Structures are given as structure tokens and as C-alpha cells.
Amino acid sequence: MTGSRGGTEVSRFCRQCQQLEAHKDLDWPSGQVLRDDEAQRTLYDALCGGTRPLPPRYQLRVLKELVRIIEEAIEDWDVHGVSDDLMGCLTELMAQPLPDEMVAVQQKSYVTYTLSLLDNLSGPNSRPQITMLESRNLIAAGGTTGLRTWEAALHLGQWLCRETTALNTGDHGESNTTHSITIKDKRILELGAGTGYLAILCAKYLGAAQVIASDGSDDVVATLPDNFYLNGLQDDERLTALDLKWGHALLGTEEAEWNGGRPVDVVLGADITYDKSVIPALVSTVATLFGKFPGVVVIIAATERNRETFEAFLEVCQRRRFVVDEVDDFDVPRRRHQGGPFYSDSVPIRICRISKT
User: Fold this and answer.
1) Do residues 301 and 215 share a domain?
2) Using CA atoms, how far apart are residues 164 and 275, in angstroms rounded to an integer?
3) Which of 76, 132, 258, 354 is the most buried (most CB within 10 A)?
4) What does the alpha-carbon distance between residue 322 and residue 353 come to, in Å, rounded to a whole number?
5) CA geometry: angle at 334 spanning 328 and 340, to 5°?
6) H/E element holding 212?
7) Which residues contact 137 (CB under 8 A, 6 or more apart)?
8) In total, how many domains does the chain have?
9) Could you tell me if 82 and 197 lie in one domain?
């Protein structure tokens, strides 16, 4: 491939495509990089190969643009060309009927997130990734937002990855030890788990002893095992999906006590404060968890789309005499500095640690 910089450009672009980033947000490598044979092999493997294909409409649009860029960059067709594999994939897509756009947005697609902050902890030939089945452009008719992974979950996940890397390497860098946290060997409860991104991250990569992915939507809870399976966790007894409705008592199901009487060490929640109407029930559940597990650590991440909504959350916490401390050393990185997962840098995401006075 044309230099290490070219390889980095192509690798980054492939990771963005596998995450189904919007066309306008993709960082397209230059034509001089893309016309290289090795670059095109890498692109083919990422965009056309494998058992978890990109959605056909997305794949077609990306390949058309790639071929256009490559062809425009070719000065001598005896030296460079468009690979037969890429052209074959594009031709096949153009020949087959594609689903109507209204149908396509309702279909679930494979979305793969790369955990760039864990690269140093993985082997040279393995990149830590989480793959989900998501409906990226759809909120269910029932109002649930659990069909896709939202920005706050990705940002909170990156913070947890940074804390894990600091623990394993002893290099705390800019990490604020006041708010530092470790997931390793801890029992984790995720509230409003949605796709289960954080739960899977904790179970697969961060060394949690037990992880409960909970949600108040029966439909969301029913789909969580699919994402567990995609990440090789279908038989992992440490990871379970649970229906937990905020504001309701924590009751046992098959077991006499909730969670079999086992403690919870850390509670995680991301993008769960977006609706003012559910905040009292959410904080009520947090209060119940403090009462049941006095030493529990509660970490909430919130995308500040609406300042008023977040203020409502802080106000309810204050009435409960909870202390909300913001993690102030982990801002959303600029998109150009992100190595995966990729998420918007246009809106602040706040990570808060909640404690009981």
C-alpha cells in the first residue's frame, strides 16, 4: 500500500463503512491511495467479503464513489486499474433489485464498532470490535429507542476502555483518578441497555465478573440475545438480559431474590435521561439500587441535546440528596481524531458519577 499513511487512511475508511457512517461523514482516501492494488484488496475484504455484509444500498453507493475516485486518479492504465473483485461486486449490486428505500430503513443491518482504545491490549492480528444488528434510522412504533446504539453509549464505552487501558498499563495519562473506575472482576448492571453495547463491552473485553443488560422494553430485551450471539457470548453465563422497568420493585423471577441475591458493584446507563417524563422513575430505581447495594457505583452518560432535560435530571437527583459529579477530563474527541467507534462531536456528552450523601 502507498506508505503507512495510505494504509491508515484506508483502514480508517473501512472502519467507518463497517459502522455504516453516513456518506457525508466518511473520510474518503485520496485517489493516489485508492488506486493501489493492496488498498483495493483491503477495501474488497472490508466492504464485500465476510459473512456480515453491508446493506446493499449503502454498499452500492460507497462502491460507486470509490470506483469513480479510483478511475479519476489513474494516469496510466498499464500501471493501475480497478480490481476485478471490486468491479465484480459493484456489477453484481447494480444488476440485482434493491429493496425500496422505505423498506430498507426498517431492516436491521450489521453494524461493527472498532474499539480503538483497546488496540494495545489485543494481538497484532486481531482488532477488538463489537458487531450489532441495528435499525440505524428507525425508532420503533412503541417509542423505544433501543434499536440502535446511541452516541452516549459509544462515548461512555470509550471512557471505560481508557480506564481499563490505564489500569493494565499503569499509564493514567490524563485520567482523573478521582473518578477512575475498573470493570474487571465487578458485577455490572446496565440500565436502558438497548442494543447491549456496554454490556457486551464489559463482558467481552473489560473482564466483568457478571453483566446484566436490562431494559424496560420487552421487545428490546427479546432481541439482546441476538447481539450476544454475534459477539460469541451466547453461552457465556456471566451475561444475561433482563426486563427491568424503572420505578418498579426489584423482584426475583425464578430465584427468590432479585439477581439471586448477588450484589451489583457498578451501574451504567447511557442516553437514558432524554425524556423528562421518565426521569423520576429512573432516579427512583437508582435510589432502590443504593438502598439494596450501599457501595454501588453509578455512572450515567447523557448527550446534551436539550439542556432543560438534563437540568430536570439533576433537579430530581438533588431532591433525592444525590451528589452528581461530572467527569471533566474526557471530552468528545473531534471526529478527525476518532479511530473508532465514530460518533458526532457537535453535541456535548456528559459522563456523571452519582453517589448518595
Assistant:
1) yes
2) 31
3) 132
4) 10
5) 100
6) strand 210-215
7) 105
8) 2
9) no
What range does the domain containing 269 cover?
Answer: 110-356
> Distance (Å, rounded) from C-alpha 138 to C-alpha 287?
32
Sequence letter at residue 122: S
Residue 138 has pLDDT above 70, yes or no: no
What is the rounded CA–CA span in Å between residue 87 and residue 44? Answer: 10
Q: How far apart are CA 24 and CA 27, in angstroms?
A: 8
Grid cell of 70 as nine digits: 479510483
Out of 40, 71, 105, a domain closes at 105
CB atoms within 10 A of CB 207: 16
Residue 346: is its pLDDT beyond 70?
yes
| CB of 196 closer than 8 Å to CB of 163 | no
Q: What single letter denotes the amino acid at residue 69?
A: I
Instruction: Indicate if 182 and 260 belong to the same structural domain.
Output: yes
User: Confidence band (pLDDT; 50, 70, 90) for 316?
Assistant: very high
Residue with cell 475516485: 69
Report the candidate in 190, 192, 193, 197 with the shortest Cα–Cα distance to residue 211: 190
Identify residue 218 by its one-letter amino acid code: D
- Nearest one of 252, 126, 259, 113 to 195, comparing CA atoms: 113
Distance of alpha carbon 283 from its chain centroid, rounded? 24
pTM: 0.92
Rounded-to-integer distance, Cα 207 and Cα 201, Å: 9
> Which residues neighbour 51 within 8 Å (Cβ) at sequence distance 6 or greater?
none
User: Among 72-76, 134-138, 280-284, 348-352, which is the least confidently predicted range?
Assistant: 134-138
Contact 288, 320 (CB under 8 A): no
- Measure Cα distances from 344 to 10, 32, 173, 266, 331 in Å: 21, 28, 24, 27, 12
